[in-house]
Design goal:
By secondary structure, this protein is an alpha/beta fold. The protein folds into 2 domains: 175 residues, 3-Layer(aba) Sandwich (Rossmann fold); 196 residues, Dehydroquinate synthase-like - alpha domain (Dehydroquinate synthase-like, alpha domain), CATH 1.20.1090.10. 48% of the residues lie in helices and 12% in strands. The strands form 2 sheets. Strands 1-8-5-4-2-3 form a 6-stranded parallel β-sheet, with helices on both faces. Strands 6-7 form a two-stranded antiparallel ribbon. A hairpin with a 4-residue loop joins strand 6 and strand 7. 56% of the residues are buried. The model has no long low-confidence stretch (mean pLDDT 97).
């Protein structure tokens, strides 16, 4: 057994824990910015709770930056970073779904160093960024899926280049993940399914890719068991707090698993989809691609796919993984094709080229290393539905 495990994120988990935001944040200074989406944190009361807690612990200034949208852009990161610098902000609170959290983390990197968001995608580890300069980030998820609250990734879109790339750097970890499952109660069944499927694919891809890390595998396995049992419950009973609690926990486990083991080809092929079609939610793209890619992948890591099939309640055979994925997506109302999502057939070749150019860093760890032809074929298979 040979593995590394480093997680510099303090996790504060539990029902109602958003109340402790002010107390936790106090350590990091007096001037805060809350980075959030346009609507949901206001409508579900999370923003009010966060502001109330900060104020009761004597914060001097809080700016609410509420322009984050799904598939967050480099432009938004740059704009918020400028405000952070001008207003001499001490620490950053990300409040919302994956987009708000990814943006908050990227704003810390950009505002604490120089340049723009796009300078930091695929940025190498090394001494050029100075750790102690980085502004602390507190992530408060209001969905259960992304896992961004516990990992080093920020996925950022560049609408001009039609590219969606990742800031993946050890300075991009939040300082604190404040995970309060009650904040997920107001998610609609559809949003619950979409975000839950993201966590499901994180667990599937981290478990089955070629990176060896037995400890991270345990997290992915546990996440899959929980998601199998509790995501359908959360979708059909949105106010079931126990289901919300388990899903917040599973998304966190899967978020740590991908931090240690990364993802694989499903994510690699999805990013070009939502880069070209920003109205497609990340996990809808994942759901459309997952069955065909699982069918392509299972021979490359038969033991892990057999284990996955078994966890999902199927015979422990690698080929059963394909129906295990497809049936589960069906069960939570996420069995979709690229065509149904609005992808144009003539775009498939461009998507394949983009995957080949922009996601090839993932190819060596994918269970089966794909060729350009394989990728095009997988898009074609996912177009009508596999
Ligand atoms: Fe994801």
């Amino acid at each position: 057994m040979n593995f590394d495990f480093y997680l510099p994120v303090e996790i504060i988990f539990g029902r109602g824990r958003i109340k402790s935001l002010g107390e936790v944040a106090k350590r990091y200074g007096y001037r805060a910015i809350i980075i959030t989406g346009r609507k949901s944190a206001k409508e579900n009361g999370a923003l009010e709770k966060a502001l109330g807690s900060l104020k009761s612990w004597g914060v001097e200034k809080v700016i609410v930056y509420d322009k984050v949208e799904p598939n967050p852009t480099d432009k938004i990161v740059n704009e918020a970073s400028q405000i952070v610098v001008e207003e001499k902000i001490d620490y950053i609170v990300g409040l919302g779904g994956g987009s708000a959290l990814d943006t908050a983390k990227a704003v810390s990197i950009v505002s604490s160093n120089e340049g723009y968001a796009w300078d930091y995608v695929n940025y190498p580890e090394g001494p050029r960024l100075i750790p102690y300069l980085n502004r602390p980030v507190i992530c408060i998820p209001t969905t259960a899926g992304t896992g961004s609250e516990v990992n080093r990734y920020s996925v950022i879109s560049n609408p001009i280049r039609k590219e969606k790339l990742v800031i993946s750097h050890s300075l991009n970890y939040p300082k604190v993940a404040l995970i309060d499952p009650e904040l997920c109660l107001s998610m609609s069944p559809k949003l619950t399914a979409i975000t839950g499927v993201d966590a499901f694919i994180h667990a599937l891809e981290s478990l089955t890719n070629k990176v060896e890390n037995v400890f991270a595998d345990e997290l992915a396995i546990r996440a899959l068991r929980i998601i199998k049992e509790w995501l359908p419950v959360a979708v059909s009973e949105p106010s079931n707090l126990k289901a919300r609690e388990w899903m917040s926990y599973a998304a966190m486990l899967a978020g740590i698993a991908i931090d240690k083991k990364r993802v694989a080809l499903i994510h690699g092929m999805e990013h070009p989809v939502s880069a070209h079609y920003p109205n497609i939610a990340h996990a809808e793209g994942l759901a459309a691609l997952a069955p065909a890619i699982t069918n392509f992948n299972y021979k490359g890591n038969p033991k892990k796919y057999a284990l996955f099939a078994e966890i999902m309640g199927y015979e422990p055979k690698p080929e059963k993984a394909v129906s295990a994925v497809a049936d589960f997506l069906e069960k939570v109302g996420m069995r979709v094709s690229l065509k149904e999502l609005g992808v144009e057939k003539e775009k498939l070749e461009r998507l394949a080229e983009d995957t080949y150019m922009l996601s090839r860093g993932l190819f060596p760890i994918n269970p089966v290393e794909p060729s350009m032809e394989d990728i095009l074929k997988l898009y074609q298979q996912s177009y009508e539905g596999f």
